[in-house]
Design brief:
seven-stranded mixed β-sheet, globular, four-stranded antiparallel β-sheet
Length: 123
């Protein structure tokens, strides 16, 4: 199973980025997916998740209203659209695949992880 995250970069405060996570070797349509992030010196934290069907999404309070998670089952890809980025959003972002179809923010329920893509928001 491989998850390849991309789309990170340097952006100014208030800017936008779209992260992508291409998935291979996994039953994509049967799994929920999540995005997590880890800032320097901090623990990895939950950002957003999407159910297997795509009908359900869930966000952390810190990104609610600014980030949107989506998935394209035909392309085996999960996206994270990030808007109105702030310096506190600076982190390495990871996509992950859960073993179940439902929504969860619990890190330990995600069994497969991508390599991460770095997002830096400059002021």
């Amino acid at each position: 199973v491989q998850l390849q995250a991309s789309g990170g970069g340097l952006v100014q405060v208030g800017g936008s980025l779209r992260l992508s996570c291409a998935v291979s070797g996994h039953t994509f349509s049967g799994s929920a997916f999540g995005w997590f992030r880890q800032a320097p010196g901090k623990e990895r934290e939950f950002v957003a998740c999407i159910s297997a069907s795509g009908s359900g999404t869930y966000y952390s309070d810190s990104v609610q209203g600014r980030f949107t998670i989506s998935r394209d089952n035909a392309k085996n890809t999960v996206y994270l659209q990030m808007s109105n980025l702030q310096p506190d959003d600076t982190a390495v972002y990871y996509c992950a695949a859960a073993m179940a179809p439902g929504l969860t923010r619990r890190l330990e329920l995600y069994h497969y992880w991508g390599q991460g893509t770095e997002v830096t928001v400059s002021s």
